[in-house]
Amino acid sequence: DNFICSSSYTSAAEKDTVIRLWDVRTRTTIREFFAHSKDVNSIQFSLDEMKIFSASPDRTIKVWDFSTCGKTRKVFKGHKLRADGFAISPDGKTMVTAGADCKVMTWKLGLKETDGESREGTDGNSREETIDVKPDKTFEHEKVCFACAITSDGKYALSGSHDKTVKKWEIEGDTDICLASITVGAEVQYIAIDDSLDSTHAGTNTFFVACTDNNIRQFDLTMKADAVPLKVFE
Q1: 53 by DSSP, 3-state: which?
Q2: Alpha helices (H) along 6-47
Q3: Residues 143, 55, 47: CA angle, nearest 5 degrees
Q4: What is the distance between the alpha carbons of residues 145 and 160, in angstroms, rounded to a whole number?
Q5: Cα–Cα distance, 37 to 94 (Å, whole number)
Q6: Cβ distance 72 to 113 under 8 Å?
Q7: pLDDT, tens digit, 9 for 90 and up, residues 6-34
Q8: Per-residue model confidence (pLDDT) at position 219
Q9: SS3 of 158, please?
Q10: Distance CA 154, CA 91 (A)
Q11: Pick from 37, 53, 40: nearest CA to 9
């Protein structure tokens, strides 16, 4: 809880491709990761706080490992346009990503070093062996997709798009068809699921959608075809 990550840019001509790890107590940078060939859209710690995930308009998602002094361990390639939102399952085994190519992709995070395609790293931290990972499943929206989330049991993914829909997909199993789809009334920017199984918090079995009309809508996770918001926060 004493560390945060950041990446920023001051103008379109001066985009910052570096991820910085900060010590909150001292307000100082303790490590820099020379992350991507373009600016960084999203950053997230792994659940064990030993890795950092980052997404970029360079169409990749990367994993940075503290145990190797911040070296790139895996590079997830599949999106044809910028990679934006991503979510990691509670068990840490699966990642779901959303991109400007209208695609939603699932990835296995538990890959061994012998899986995927090995190559020599070219990031600014080191020259080492990294693993290029390909998506496990690919789903699709009609327009750009910036938002995704995973249910607490790790079985399903939700994705939100500028086509004004939220769709439900099965992560495991053979099917890659849409299990449910609802229209939310505005372009979707962010999704958060509240179905916690933790005894300290009784989940409401709902999800929240932040949209470009500056409203947040709450829906039931059953996602019936004629679903309307349970609440709208303006």
Answers
A1: strand
A2: none
A3: 115
A4: 6
A5: 25
A6: no
A7: 555 433 334 567 777 778 788 888 777 77
A8: 96
A9: strand
A10: 7
A11: 40
